[in-house]
Each structure stands twice: as structure tokens, then as C-alpha cells.
Amino acid sequence: MHDKLELTDEEWRRRLSPEAYAVLRGHGTERAGTGCFLGTHDPGTYVCAGCGNPLFRSGEKFESGTGWPSFTSPIGTDAVAVKVDRSHGMSREEVRCARCDGHLGHVFPDGPPPTGRRYCMNSVAMRHVPVREETSMSPHLTITSPAFLDGGAIPRAFTCEGADRSPALAFAGAPAGAKSLALIVDDPDAPDPDAPKMTWVHWVLYDMPPGTTGLPEDVARAALPQGTREGVNDWHRTGWGGPCPPIGRHRYFFKLFALDATLGDLGRATKAQVEAAMRGHVVAEATMMGTYLKAGP
What we know:
- By secondary structure, the protein is mainly β.
- The protein is 7% helix and 32% strand.
- The strands form four sheets. It has a six-stranded antiparallel beta sheet with strand order 3-4-8-7-6-5, with no helix packed on it.
- The relative contact order is 0.15.
């Protein structure tokens, strides 16, 4: 199991489909007999739909006749967490993803040997990774930069006080099944970090190939990975717009998303339009943050 994943409610709503959100974050239950994994026997691994954490192997799946996909045991002792659930006037054992704390279902003591356990899961809370893709399976998407550390100061060269070049970025860990990557860079501290009123958007890229390992410094449009599409920043232009805070030290969040689909041509799409198109397609997310304080007036 990888590092814990903690997101805001807004981030979860953007990341998940409404149905997945209702189960994983709202602790709901899909209607019996309706799940997409009911009666399926394809070899592979079932991972959390929220964060990609491996949960169950297909060999542990069995037909319980209950109307929900069932498993005899998780993939490992640290894959899931079991908690007491006293909702609806009952006492049950709730099963959650150990990485993102998403609700998966419940476990009951009426399963077949050798465990005698029945992990009764919601299909919408999981994704199936076929055997042929398991070798590349990783829920731990990362974004880093050789120019500055996460939480560190962004060098002047990448700002309006310097050459305003885009910093070099490195990507790793796109999960199996990802069809594209998207990058959004924004500043939630505008105009004044002591009295923020808006989030200023600095860069929007989408439909990057899932195998993209990063972007070079001062990347030009012609040098973007093949198929990459550009959205518009808050200067109403495409491309990078570097930090230029009017007052105080601002934070700049570099957010990388792995999607299970390509978005296609959205025209001169804003951050909001790209985020709307991504809704329900985000399978992994990574963030790094840099800061900047202008030296001059």
C-alpha cells in the first residue's frame, strides 16, 4: 500500500463520477444486481476507483448469490481497513480502502473456505486491471521539478521578473489503464495571500500521452508531447505564464491528473472547462507546490 491520499471534498467530486462519489465518499450502496463486476471472471486485479490502490485478485472472487461481487480475502493485510459500522440500526464490519479511506462495502463471516469471509463490494468503488497491464500498475502518480523542491521557492528565471520560462517537470507512476494526462498550474492566493479573492490560472495542458515522463524547461508548443492540447490561462492565452504576485508570497500548485480517457478538442478551454470534462475520468492525481515573492515593486 502506498502513501495515504487525502483530498478535499471538491477534489473528490472532480475526480469521481457521481455514482462513485456516492459510494466511496458518501458511504452509499449500489443497488443489488446492478454492478458491472457481478458475474465477471476476467483475470487481473481489482483496484480502488478512487486512488488505484490494489485491493483484490480475481482468483479470490466468487459468486455469492447476494447481488454484489464478492471476494474471500484482500490482496494483502494492508490493502483494506475494516471498521465497525453501526448505521441503519445494525452492527457490521465496513471495508474501506486503506490508502484513501474510501468506502468499498462490508465483510461478513459467511464466506467459503479457507477464510470463511465474504468481502461484499460495490462494483462502482473498483476498477479492474487486466493481467497484461498489471506489471505497470501503480497508484502513486508523482510530479517533481529539478528547478525547485516541493514547497520551496520558484527561481526568478521562471517568473515575470526573469525570463518567464516554464520550469522543467518530471512525471512518474501513471496507473495502468490511464489514457491521458492533464496539467493545471494555479495560484489560490490572488491577489493577496492575506486576503485571497480568486485562483489565478497559469498553465493548462491536457490530452498528454499517459507515457509522458515530463516536460523540458521553456517548452515550446511544437515541443509538447504529441497529441497534447493547450487550454488558456488567466491572461487569456495558451502556454505558461509565470508567477507575478502583486503582493506577498504566493503559492503555485502544479497539479497532474491521470485520466481514463482523452478529452478531445475543447477549443480555447479554460481551467474550469477542462476540469468539467475531466469529471469522472480522474484515476490518479499528484501535486507539487512552489512559492514566489517578488523582489521589486
